[in-house]
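Hi, here's the filled form for the chain we discussed.

Project: internal
Contact: R.S.
Residues: 784
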Amino acid sequence: MNSSSSSNIINESSLGVSIFILTASIVFSVYTSTASHSIAGGDSGELVGEGCQLGTSHPPGYPLYTVIVYLVTTFGKKYYPTLSPAYLVNITSCLFGSISSGLISLIVYKLTSGINNGSGSGNTKEGLLSPQVVARCSVALSTGLLSAFSPLMWQYNTSAEVFALHNLFVTLIVYVLVIYNSMPNSTWIVALGSFLSGLAMTNQHTSILLILPVIVHVFYKSSILSKPRLLIISTLSFLAGISLYLLLPYFAITNPHAGSWGDVTSLSGFIHHFLRRDYGTMRLFSGDDSASEGMLTRTWWWLYEFVTTQCPLSMLFVLFSLQIICNVDKIFQRIKDISRHLETTEEGQSTTSTSMVTLASLIFYLVVFHSLSNLPLSNPLLFGIHQRFWMHPNILMFIMNGRAMYVAVSAISCRSPRRLLALSVVVLLLPFATYHQNYNTRDQSSNNYFRKYALSILEPLPSNSLLLINYDQQWTSIRYLQECEGVRTDITSINLSMMTFDWWQSKHDLYEHVSFPGTHYSRGTTLPWQNGGFTFSEFIDANTEHFGSDIFIGGRLNFDDQEYHESYHEIPFGLVRQIRSQEHIDISVETAESYRTFSLQPWTTIANHLSTDLPCEKKYPQTEWEWTIRREFFDHMVSRSTHLLNLALNEKNDSSSSTTSVLPSIVESALWLELASSWDNDTYAEQSSMKKNLGLAYMNMVRSKESITFPIVEDIFGYSTSNNDTNWWSSESNEYNDWKEWASTRWRYEWEAFLGLESSKSEPGYLQIKQIYDTVMSSLPAGR
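And the returned structure, exactly as it came back:
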């Protein structure tokens, strides 16, 4: 090799590194400025929570990510104590995502190295500032930035999830594949690729869908089966990477922790966890998937979503428009020249080989993953969960698109350097358009919703309470606050779904003050129950002596339990429900006025955290986890109002409590229902139960003989234009006849709307309401 060739290789390599650094630096700068300072939705709360104390996350365990989180949070606690653990992990994800984006640029740059020479003049002859090299750099940089600023990548590359690290492994493996195809006899390249493949499996099992096609290619090209030494080295390298899984049982044995998932201390338990048998091996969804879509439908949805959302149509439109500018015959001839060069040169064959393996990996992933994935895509939230696994094929698509884009640019330029430079500028503008298009929705710098949501649940609870959770977002956000930030660690929180697995009996000793009347939570009168399980009612029976009425539940029961409903009742308490015995009546929550005062305490805390800072529906649609916070807020707001209204009406109709004042409770329940309806009109506008309850409240206001003035309702939500001592309805009038006339008008409007809804006919009391409404309306003078 002469000195000129050596210099060109060095310059070529240096230029590729420069593109990598430039792409990664731009992306990291954008990512860190838009990352949340707390946890996001999904699994981030649990993953960070387990990482903070080296616990075991949900299957398959994610040992590599757990160790990374532990190191980052431990380092951060020592050197950056003012930064939250979640923010430090988010920044780490930003680093992974930016390196991944830089690698995409570098891969595209290398895969286009053999295309320039199809024009008859190579890179080295023209120099590093030739139009061909500038175009290569522009396409490579543009592709990396386009992938980074696509909404899905931007979202998960800036949050504490395993996907940013998975994206990094995908690009690392493809990059090593590029190097391997240029030097297939290198033992250390094969060993490195094998080690990275094993390590990738400790983070995300879908890595296997990239690893298998690559293994087939490497085994065939290097004839590994006929080379025992290379086979042994590659096998040992893979095992060295995946051996990180041995840390799961080690951590579980040396640092057992309440709330961690599974029993990985035994071989059978470890295999059970590794194979994700709690969810169903090679499945995403453990629920009813009978209506789930097939492989072709899922693949079509991926392609549609990629073209319309992840890869902007403007790029395709621009390239298509530019093609008609040039002579079509010249374009076709240029493509033929490029293809001929790729087929006849060693460099071209190497890049083509990588592209073919990338394409094969993409097809393999789409077919296998979409055949096994069973999340129903008709559910917007489940669609968003499924969508996360599309980043893997998206990366492969961006790489192939980048190479195809350069071929198109080279062909369209028709050997015109000026035209090639102009196209390079256009290509560079595309990621800036994508950045501008997605910035508002992907800027999460002010997203503290889940932290506020978890605080809204934890802060109002009495000391040393028992909190039973069967709702993912409650569990993950609370898990993070308790484990990483030490918030309300006096509260014992238990995941009900975890308690249903056989391995739960191994966790009993970790809950000092909790009594378990059997091995695990099960449905009554079933084989698991007969073999030592316990029902929910039996669990509550066993713990009421220690916790008394300080037992709370969030979410629904896993199994219907008639005995529980007969022995206990649930009282709305902020964003959860308090479990109370039917036998012991507590006057502090059993009368309308006492419950109104009692239930305002947790809601004052909730209002301080959330009422003026609920997730915006435009920024967080139903495919986003943040949307569930808004839904929870209003659902529990309505639940509290309905319970208060029922207590008030029951007391009002009880002859023994005729002197009890219930009008303030009726008025407050109506006010809260009105607020919920006005804030979330899309949900409640056509909800028959909302119309029915508002009509009941207004009817009883009109009939009330308690007061001649309208009761003042405390404005805890901060939406009043006046101070809290002035009722927000006071502008109507404080005179007796005026507010009752106003209430009568509201009653008429709500029940007229109720009777006009088809769904109302299945509501309890429909015929009675219709009779009352018809009687009153027929008694009114004509024209009223």
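Let me know if anything looks off before we file it.
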